[in-house]
Design brief:
The chain is of the alpha/beta class and 347 residues long. The chain is built from 14 helices and ten strands.
């Protein structure tokens, strides 16, 4: 059995130029549930108050069976996710300097939520280390791990070999999910290769939107798996309603040019970064264009200011970041560099 885990509300929000209002996120969650999606990562609660509110409302309205919030594998983020009432999804840091501490924090999360899932970034850059960590997580009783091609550099052969080796490393019944970015147009084929070798779930989004030019598309993966004989209880008519709604949001916010920008290899989105957590690790991510929304962190905003020779102290930088996030959520749009610079002067 293979499960599709939707990430439109979190990963999709990292798509360049995209921002969602609270009511837009809630509508997407409702349509996902009506289409038959049971599990979804809906937010990054430590990023902003609105992410906490969205998570709680989705849970209260019972749009989805399994609601996850994402955060770093640190106690602060774990507590913020847990306090929303969501299941806990964590990602490890891009630098594994304090792995023992990270493992302890994951144990802490498992005590709060036995369905905790952990993403081990990045499988291409850190393959041998990832497999070692996988063994440790298997030993402490983690039930599900995500193996993400965070930088989008994998190919089907790499994914097959990775899953084969991962399955050999596992002694207990730990499930493997894959999350493949589409920088080179291989996300769907990479996910299918992983499933052939034993991966049990796939991370997807509507229209494949996400960081840079996104990940595997929900409907494409559903159709491909159905043709391979997998049974997925999704309602195709409701999927079309979901796609219509998200498509209208994209057209209203960005226009048809988004789909040119989002094309693999040549599209400008492949060179654009949104996630604040990524901006802290430029040794891993080479993108030098930034999209600014609620997921912009201090590192990302600071790098934009540095481009124009602007420097703010810690207090003013924090104020600017909060103002940027509030505007993005309230108006449902990404901000331009000029707007960030203007706001920095006001701060």
């Amino acid at each position: 059995m293979v499960q599709l885990i939707d990430d439109t509300l979190r990963e999709g929000l990292q798509s360049p130029g995209i921002s969602f209002k609270i009511e837009e996120k809630l509508k997407i969650a409702e349509l996902l549930g009506k289409a038959g999606i049971e599990s979804a990562i809906v937010s990054y609660p430590s990023a902003h108050w609105s992410e906490k509110k969205i998570t709680q409302e989705i849970i209260n309205k019972k749009y989805l069976k399994n609601v996850y919030g994402l955060g770093r594998a640190i106690k602060k983020d774990i507590d913020e996710i847990f306090n929303t009432g969501a299941h806990i999804a964590l990602h490890l840091p891009f630098k594994y300097d304090n792995l023992d501490n990270v493992i302890e924090d994951i144990k802490y999360s498992l005590k709060k939520d036995e369905l905790t899932t952990v993403a081990l970034v990045d499988v291409v850059t850190n393959k041998s280390l990832i497999l070692d960590i996988l063994k440790k997580l298997d030993e402490i009783g983690l039930k599900k791990v995500q193996l993400p091609d965070t930088t989008g550099n994998a190919n089907p052969k790499f994914m097959r070999d990775l899953i084969k080796e991962a399955m050999k490393s596992i002694k207990n019944n730990i499930d493997i999910e894959v999350h493949c970015h589409n920088d080179y147009g291989l996300s769907v084929s990479n996910c299918l290769a992983a499933i052939e070798e034993g991966a049990s779930s796939v991370s997807v989004t509507v229209y494949g939107i996400g960081e840079r030019n996104g990940i595997a598309d929900l409907y494409v993966m559903y159709n491909a798996l159905k043709k391979e004989g997998y049974k997925l209880d999704l309602v195709e008519e409701k999927l079309l309603d979901l796609y219509k709604y998200v498509g209208e949001l994209i057209l209203n916010k960005i226009g048809y040019k988004f789909f040119f920008y989002n094309f693999p290899i040549v599209g400008i989105n492949t060179k654009t970064m949104t996630a604040g957590t990524h901006a802290s690790f430029l040794s891993v991510f080479s993108q030098d264009i930034f999209s600014v929304n609620v997921y912009a962190g201090r590192s990302l905003i600071k790098k934009i200011l540095e481009k124009y020779g602007v420097s703010l102290n810690e207090e003013k930088l924090n104020s600017l970041v909060e103002i940027v996030k509030n505007i993005s959520v309230n108006e449902g749009r990404a901000l331009t560099y000029d707007e960030v610079l203007k706001l920095s002067k006001e701060v």
